[in-house]
């Protein structure tokens, strides 16, 4: 087996990503200026393993990394050898794996990594749900709040506070409300994201955002929060109705165990069973 830090053949990297059921965003990381470490392993010219590490501007207090190996070469102990190549970094190391990837689970735990979060990404078939229309004048589209300066600031403060409180193990960078607004506008569907206001329409009681998806006929439920779960439940039903109106076939969640609001959303709708994406940190 030989090692290299040179440029990786993209076709072989794609094959390795498919073997490992990983995300193709890693191809972009390899070409990014945020990449700080890369090491590959080859056997007779075939890419059988890679470890890469990078920085994240939104979560700057750790070093992210991924370790991918070809399962047909498991007897070569490639995972341990590549992890040793990475070694210690100036910041804590953080990575994520599918819960069924038991070889990496054992490796990370043996090297002092601790599980900090599980993320569930289940799918809901929209037409399978009989839905009563929610008629509540307290529910507003995100699009409406963004043109109300006072409520927009209150929403952004609420979103930032909730995100910070649910990511204590991996703190977020100190961002201004203007930066949060930019992030929000770029990442969510303003027509399909909904806000629950109090009766006087002066304060935000809950929010639930909807996102585009890479999967066909699918939208994704993402950031959510609220002062009461009942408010959040009404928003979820409104989003389900929105999906039906727009002939969306599936809703997919992305629910972190560190967020009580995400866990409520997971239990509030009849999602199909899903394996967990487990995050480790040392």
From TrEMBL:
* Lineage: superkingdom: Bacteria
Instruction: Write the protein's name.
Output: GNAT family acetyltransferase
Q: Which organism is it from?
A: Psychrobacillus glaciei
């Amino acid at each position: 087996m030989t090692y290299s830090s040179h440029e990786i053949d993209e076709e072989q990297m794609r094959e390795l990503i498919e073997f490992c059921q990983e995300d193709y965003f890693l191809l972009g990381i390899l070409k990014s200026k945020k990449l700080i470490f890369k090491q590959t392993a080859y056997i007779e010219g075939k890419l059988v393993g890679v470890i890469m590490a990078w920085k994240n501007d939104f979560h700057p207090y750790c070093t992210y990394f991924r370790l991918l190996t070809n399962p047909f070469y498991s007897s070569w102990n490639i995972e341990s050898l590549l992890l040793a190549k990475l070694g210690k970094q100036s910041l804590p190391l953080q990575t994520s794996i599918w819960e069924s990837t038991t070889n990496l689970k054992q490796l990370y735990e043996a090297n002092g990594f601790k599980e900090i979060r599980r993320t569930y990404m289940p799918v809901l078939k929209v037409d399978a749900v009989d839905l009563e229309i929610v008629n509540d004048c307290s529910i507003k589209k995100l699009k409406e709040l963004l043109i109300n300066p006072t409520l927009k600031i209150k929403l952004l403060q609420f979103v930032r506070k909730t995100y910070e409180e649910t990511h204590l193990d991996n703190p977020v960078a100190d961002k201004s409300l203007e930066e949060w607004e930019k992030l929000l506008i770029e990442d969510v569907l303003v027509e399909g994201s909904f806000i629950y206001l109090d009766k006087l329409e002066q304060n935000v009681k809950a929010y639930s955002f909807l996102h585009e998806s890479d999967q066909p006929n699918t939208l994704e439920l993402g950031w959510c929060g609220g002062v009461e779960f009942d408010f959040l439940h009404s928003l979820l039903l409104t989003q389900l109705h929105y999906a039906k109106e727009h002939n969306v076939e599936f809703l997919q969640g992305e629910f972190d165990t560190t967020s009580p609001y995400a866990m409520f959303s997971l239990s509030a709708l009849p999602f199909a069973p899903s394996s967990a994406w487990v995050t480790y940190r040392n």
